[in-house]
Amino acid sequence: MKIAHIGQAKLRKRANQSKIPSHFIAGLERYLAFGIHPGGFMRAILSNDLVDVINRADADALSCLRPLSLLVFDCIDTRAWGTRQRVDEWMEHQGYAGITGRTFPDITDG
Questions:
Q1: Which structural domain, as residue segments, surrounds residue 24?
Q2: Distance between CA 46 and CA 48 in Å, rounded?
Q3: Quick check: is 62 in a domain?
Q4: What pLDDT sits at residue 108?
Q5: pLDDT averages per 10-residue partition of the chain, 110 residues
Q6: What confidence score (pLDDT) does residue 3 get?
Q7: What are phi and psi of 28, to 5 degrees?
């Protein structure tokens, strides 16, 4: 199980390289750092619920569905995504801030 795969700077860099709109990343960062609800579309992605993703997606969201899904799969702490229960628990524990006392894990972003 990967726990803290990458830090915040590397997450942003990967998102920029993938041309994911910044508003999606801002919501994802707030969710990871503080357990703040990331919005319906992002929550559906994090919950691995394809039907809900499609139902909630607008054209902008659909255009970045693949890069967002890959970002989550490759880079996000497995405690924070995969099922609705994990997402709910992450929010209940207030993200990294509630779990570790820091908003993001100490990772070298070099």
A1: 8-100
A2: 5
A3: yes
A4: 43
A5: 62 89 92 95 96 95 94 91 97 92 63
A6: 46
A7: -65, -40
Burial of 76 (0-12, 13-18, 19+ CB in 10 A): buried
One DSSP character per residue, 41-94 reads: HHHHHHTT-HHHHHHH--HHHHHTHHHHHHHHHHHS-GGGSSSHHHHHHHHHTT
Give the pLDDT confidence score for residue 102 in this predicted structure: 82
The pTM is what?
A: 0.86
How many structural domains are present in the chain?
Answer: 1
Please check whether residue 89 lies inside any domain of the structure.
yes
Whether 86 is covered by a domain: the verdict is yes
Task: Tell me the HSE value of 99 on the side-chain side, using a 13 A CA sphere.
Answer: 21
Q: Which helix (H) or strand (E) is 9 found in, with range?
A: helix 8-17
Would you state the pLDDT for residue 109?
A: 39
> Is residue 12 in a domain?
yes
